[in-house]
Design goal:
This protein has nine helices and no strands. It is mainly alpha-helical. It has one domain. α3 packs antiparallel against α4 and α5 packs antiparallel against α6. The two termini are about 20 Å apart. It is about 80% helix and about 0% strand.
């Protein structure tokens, strides 16, 4: 069970997230910046305070949140944003890799379908990205790998990883494929991205709690 202090942090995160989404929809840049400065540190604080143990998984995911924060706050250009979020995806991959045997990697038919769909999407986006095709393709591959490996941590983390992927597809379509096609693209992106990060966080906490309870609990935590 989350500690009372961690619940307070989660409530604060939720309140700031609501403010951010309102600001994204209304187009209030200063409020957006202020909210983004707070969001990922609050989520990292919730993760660290709610975890029964600060395991390798917890610490690495908190570090990934740090690079996501840099992408949210200091990603003033597409290239800078890609670099920060690529570093975040690499850390997520390292964090989730020990659970690969429980992920889609161990289920080749599902993995093949997933890989074909993602390869198609990444190909379309990279093809429209012009000189940024290489960085976009590399980032897309790392994001897809993260989403696949997240399925081994817990079902909730897997859903969060997939939602993270969807949130970035929204940005990619708006930036490269069909600018203006998605109305309020920044709002749609954040409306998917923030729940995605929360689901990854809760999925990680579920897995760590199961591991703390012992081998039987760890097996149950991946259901």
């Amino acid at each position: 069970m989350p500690r009372p202090s961690s619940r307070v942090v989660l409530i604060c995160f939720t309140a700031v997230a609501v403010v951010d989404l309102i600001a994204e929809f209304a187009g209030w840049p200063l409020v957006i910046l202020a909210a983004r400065v707070l969001l990922m540190p609050l989520l990292a604080a919730f993760l660290l305070s709610a975890a029964p143990r600060r395991t390798r998984l917890v610490v690495l995911v908190a570090c990934a949140f740090g690079f996501c924060w840099l992408g949210d706050v200091a990603g003033t250009t597409i290239v800078v944003k890609i670099v920060f979020f690529l570093l975040a995806q690499i850390i997520y991959v390292v964090a989730f890799r020990p659970y690969w045997r429980l992920s889609l990697v161990a289920r080749p038919p599902l993995l093949m379908l997933y890989a074909l769909a993602i390869a198609g999407l990444v190909g379309v986006v990279a093809g429209a990205a012009g000189p940024l095709a290489g960085p976009v393709a590399i980032y897309g591959a790392s994001l897809a790998l993260m989403a696949v490996l997240a399925t081994g941590v817990s079902r909730l983390a897997g859903i969060g990883g997939a939602a993270f992927l969807v949130s970035d597809i929204v940005l990619a379509v708006d930036a490269f494929v069909a600018p203006g096609l998605i109305h309020h693209a920044a709002f749609v992106n954040m409306a998917v991205y923030l729940p995605a990060q929360v689901m990854i966080t809760l999925g990680v906490l579920r897995q760590v709690s199961a591991e703390t309870a012992g081998p039987v609990g760890a097996a149950a935590g991946n259901q």
